[in-house]
Amino acid sequence: MNSYWQKLFSPQYRKVFYWSLFDFGNTSFSITIVTFVFAVYFKETVAQNQPIGDFYWSLGTGVSMLIVALVSPFLGALADHSAGKKRFLLIFTLLCIFSTSFLFFVDAGEILLGLLLFILANIGFEAGLVFYDSFLPEITEEKNFGRTSGFGFAMGYVGSFVSLMIILPLVTNNLVKYSFPVSAIFFLLFSIPLFLFLPDSKKYTKSNKSYFKIGIERLTYTFTHIKEYRNLVLFLVSFFFYIEGVNTAIYFSGIYAKSTLNFSFLELTLFFVTAQSTAILGSIIFGILGDSIGQKKTILITLLIWLIVILGAALIQTKIEFFVIGSIAGLGMGSTQSISRSLMSKLTPPEKKTEFFGFYSMFGKSSAILGPIVFGLVSWQTGSQRVAILTTGLFFIIGMLLLTRVKEN
Whole-angstrom Cα distance, residue 245 to residue 163? Predict the structure, then answer.
């Protein structure tokens, strides 16, 4: 028994805990701003419930993701050289937190201000994940990548659950705007342990060159030697397509439920609580499964789940049916992303881990441009979100076909 507690409170386990607390905190932004409260507030209040509101929202997500996609490889290469993961993570975390707080001042009709603040907040959130994800190979062994990544996502969904419970009284009492700074404070509090207690493992390398030149040189070298990493590139292209569908489903789930199925804010909150609960379960189960049967097979299973979800979401007619679909989506939501992160860690050369996680972020974030914009355009032109949601199924199918060719070794 003593050895169990010694192991549980060992430095290695504490590293994983400090790292996962950041996931616990940052998903408050994801659920409150990106997926649920601000997404619906923007469509109904800021864009005054106009059909083009879907397109404006997709434009905001697309622009922010494009910027992150362009800068991520450069930032990753730079962080690998300077061991500055925490430094860069802190900068982008604060950008997200402050921009989220200022969303409180966005009122009806202020589309430009709302989009600008959301874009800045989303850049801070998504760019920070480049550095957060790259900690994974440093805090655990390769044989535990799946479990550790799954535990991080599970902690994230627990954080989503807790933050939903905190903002529920605000939403039900028509104090929606107050949920934005509350979400920012929640993120701030639970990000602190990582910055205080989790070290960068690599020491600073002195150089007379500027950071910008070093980043460009490392990227140039990687691009010119890309043929050495063909298997990794194939995985990244596969990831680009299937995570396209995941991102689109996440960005528009709240808007879809509110606009197409007439969910109230209370019903939406209960829906996301249900989805977060199954996401916690899915992250843990599939994390263990990934370490047992392999990450590639596990991802393919989660993508099959997503295809069922997409088809079901387009066909359902009642709110109860959407709750069922949301529960199934929860199983695939965290697990697809967590297992992809662990497979990426397995395929990445240790000396270029942050740089390649920059490319991982580039492919992931650039994928969040096309899908949401296609959804927004199809919804706008057809007047049907049911037709728009079906477009995401194609991205899952292409991603699955490419993934079958990836060699997990």
Answer: 25
DSSP string, 364-395: HHHHHHHHHHHHHHHHHHHS-HHHHHHHHHHH
Interatomic CA distance for residues 259 and 247, integer angstroms: 19
CA quadruple 132, 133, 137, 138: dihedral, nearest 10: 0
Structure tokens at 21: 């607390």
pLDDT digits (tens, 9 = 90+) for 48-84: 888 777 788 878 888 888 888 778 777 766 666 665 6
pLDDT reported for residue 4: 37
Q: Kindly state the tokens that stand for 203.
A: 């020491």
The answer to whether residue 205 scores a pLDDT higher than 60 is no
pLDDT score at 265: 76
The pLDDT score that the predictor gives to residue 229 is 78
Give residue limits of the domains in the chain.
Answer: 17-196+208-403
User: What is the Cα–Cα distance from 169 to 162, expressed in whole angstroms?
Assistant: 13
Rounded Cα–Cα distance for residues 328 and 309 (Å) = 7
Residue 104 to residues 19, 41, 125, 247, 251, Cα–Cα distance (Å) = 29, 11, 18, 25, 20
In the three-class reduction of DSSP (H, G, I as helix; E, B as strand; rest coil), residue 233 is classed as helix
Q: Is domain 17-196+208-403 classified as CATH 1.10.10.10?
A: no
List, for residues 126-157, the tens digit of each pLDDT value.
Answer: 889 878 887 877 888 877 777 887 788 789 88
CA dist 166 and 149 (Å) reads: 26
